Amino acid sequence: MRDRRFKYLRNFMAHVTYGQDIDYMNQMPTMKEMRRLNAAGRLKGPEAFYFLPTKPVEELYDTTSDPHEIHNLAGDPKYEDVLRRMRRVLMKWMKETGDVGLIPEPDFDEMKRPGGRFEQTAEPGFVAGDKPHTVAVSCPTPGASIAYRTDGKNGRIGWKLYSKPVMLERGQVLKAKACRIGFKDSKVVEYRLGDSVSTTEQPSSKAMLHWRERLDQTDLLDRLLAIKSLDGQGDKAIPAYLNALEDKYGPVRYWAVVGLHNACNDAEAIDKARPALVKMLDDSSPSVAIAAAHALCDWDREAQALPVLVDAMKHGRDNVRLYAAIALGKIGEKARPAISEIKAAMKDKYKYVARVNKYTLMRFGEEPPKEHGKN
């Protein structure tokens, strides 16, 4: 968020470094040199920022006096009013736009396609046109587009996007199908002059609500912004995170687990949170179970947690396997017992899983097999 002078950034994953392993970037000569210098301890000051292990929760820069955005003013009391104003505007914008960025990808996949199944767009229906020999077409699935073509007397035309009633001649057949992004296309339906038609458009079917419409009927996004407001509060936020483990929404429970993982920085706090996260290993949301397993591996409970990550690497959903691969990469040497499964996952059909595992194997000193997956 920015105005003419100030630029505000909110890092919702402040626990993750700026300098993540991104395959195409790592192949660039400049990035190779930066990583070499960083490994040698030769980067100092601002040039080392990219490789810091974490990010600040908030960043505020005076772009007039600091055009390269080097000096973070978020902690300076002189700029507290600016910080609050920018933060308020960002939160308002996120609510107004219905920002879904805080929903973990595996949960988002399930939201769009429950049970991994695509919904199918409803078949279009034919409505009497306002002129003789014309027919209108409608579909009860909200937001669907209709494609049509005519076969018959004047030959056959390709599919066109429907926008207005179609005029037919005798002997012509009007074919139509309905489509919506994220849905399977409907079956093709046909109409000939003289067939029965409806006098009104088909009403929308509530059973066919798009995921976005279903989401907007919940308070999930508000609850996500509420739990992320705890970022940066350290151990003061631990009680709230523990309570949020019981939230009805998987994405909120996910951020509660991530929050605990990062807020519990001493043995006493870890001992208090560990039993709660053990229970989360069986959570109905794979995102939550993977996040809990990641934390428990870091907290010396890999005997319980590592099998959860290994099992998740075999999940039917691409992004579940990706989340598991990322967690295995982050737990370092504690992932070594799973090295055979990590090598096997280099053949994953989802290329991003293979790319994450590639860098995990390289950190183990292993030569990674060639990638086989799709983008």
What's the structural blueprint in terms of helices and strands?
Blueprint: E1 6-10, H1 23-26, H2 29-39, E2 58-62, H3 80-97, H4 105-112, E3 119-120, E4 125-128, E5 134-138, E6 145-152, E7 155-156, E8 160-161, E9 166-167, E10 173-179, E11 183-184, E12 189-192, H5 211-216, H6 220-228, H7 238-244, H8 250-263, H9 267-280, H10 286-298, H11 302-312, H12 318-330, H13 339-344, H14 351-363
Helix pairs in contact: 6-8, 7-8, 8-9, 8-10, 9-10, 10-11, 10-12, 11-12, 12-14
Describe it.
The protein is α+β, with helices and mostly antiparallel strands. The protein has 3 domains: 6-112, no CATH class; 119-209, Immunoglobulin-like; 213-363, Leucine-rich Repeat Variant. The protein is 39% helix and 13% strand. The protein has helices at residues 23-26, 29-39, 80-97, 105-112, 211-216, 220-228, 238-244, 250-263, 267-280, 286-298, 302-312, 318-330, 339-344, 351-363; strands at residues 6-10, 58-62, 119-120, 125-128, 134-138, 145-152, 155-156, 160-161, 166-167, 173-179, 183-184, 189-192. Strands 6, 7, 8, 10 and 12 form a 5-stranded antiparallel beta sheet that branches. A 3-stranded antiparallel beta sheet has the order 4-5-9, with no helix packed on it. The protein has a two-stranded antiparallel ribbon with strand order 1-2. Helix 9 (267-280) packs antiparallel against helix 10.
Describe this structure in a few short sentences.
The protein has 375 residues and is of the alpha+beta class.
Low-pLDDT ranges: none
- The SSE string, one letter per element, is EHHEHHEEEEEEEEEEHHHHHHHHHH
Number of domains: 3
CATH topology of the largest domain: Leucine-rich Repeat Variant
Provide mean pLDDT, rounded. 92
What proportion strand? Answer: 5-15%
User: Superfamily at the CATH H level of the largest domain?
Assistant: Leucine-rich Repeat Variant
CATH class of the largest domain: Mainly Alpha
**What sort of overall outline do the alpha carbons produce when their principal axes are compared?**
globular
